[in-house]
């Protein structure tokens, strides 16, 4: 392991997966041929498919499944908790038993633009494109372009586009 990477022993790196410096990976799976850029964290239980590109400064949390051939732009952040809190009502610090992980799925060949935030519980459809800086709060239909805060459908992609 490179001194500039923190890749836990429980990480599965499939054949040809490339991970650059200053990453933090634990309990996740990175598919064959995928590339993970610098300053990325991928948490336990997250799955990255084959031939994906995860750009620098992105955060992929527990509960996220990214299928094959997905592009994740720079500084994309996923969220896995609908109502995050630091402490319980009695003031005690919350632990894993105090919240529920809400899964998110990014389908094959989708692209997520730089600076986007993906809320939990959504599915980004096959081949969809999320415009830079968008906040995705609900499912994105396959083959569409969405953008904005909150993200809204801009147009339908043409076949092969």
In short:
The chain has strands at residues 5-7, 12-13, 18-19, 23-25, 29-30, 35-36, 41-42, 47-48, 53-54, 59-60, 64-66, 71-72, 77-78, 104-106, 111-112, 117-118, 123-124, 129-130, 135-136, 144-147, 152-156.
CATH topology: UDP N-Acetylglucosamine Acyltransferase, domain 1
Strand order of the largest sheet: 3-6-9-12-15-18-20-21
The total tally of domains equals 1
Report the strand count: 21
Percent of residues in beta strands? 25-35%
Overall form: globular
Q: Which consecutive residue ranges, at least 5 long each, have pLDDT under 50?
A: none
CATH class: Mainly Beta
Order of helices and strands: EEEEEEEEEEEEEEEEEEEEE
Largest sheet, strands/sense/barrel: 8 strands, mixed
CA radius of gyration: 16 Å
CATH superfamily: Hexapeptide repeat proteins
Mean pLDDT: 95
Helicity, as a percent range = under 10%
Query: How far apart are the first and last residues' alpha carbons, in Å?
Result: 39 Å
CATH architecture grouping: 3 Solenoid
Commentary on this structure:
This protein has 161 residues and is mainly β. It has a single domain, classed as Hexapeptide repeat proteins (UDP N-Acetylglucosamine Acyltransferase, domain 1). It has strands spanning 5-7, 12-13, 18-19, 23-25, 29-30, 35-36, 41-42, 47-48, 53-54, 59-60, 64-66, 71-72, 77-78, 104-106, 111-112, 117-118, 123-124, 129-130, 135-136, 144-147, 152-156. Strand 20 and strand 21 form a beta hairpin. It is globular and about 50 Å long. The mean pLDDT is 95.
List the main descriptive attributes of the protein structure presented here.
mainly beta, UDP N-Acetylglucosamine Acyltransferase, domain 1, globular
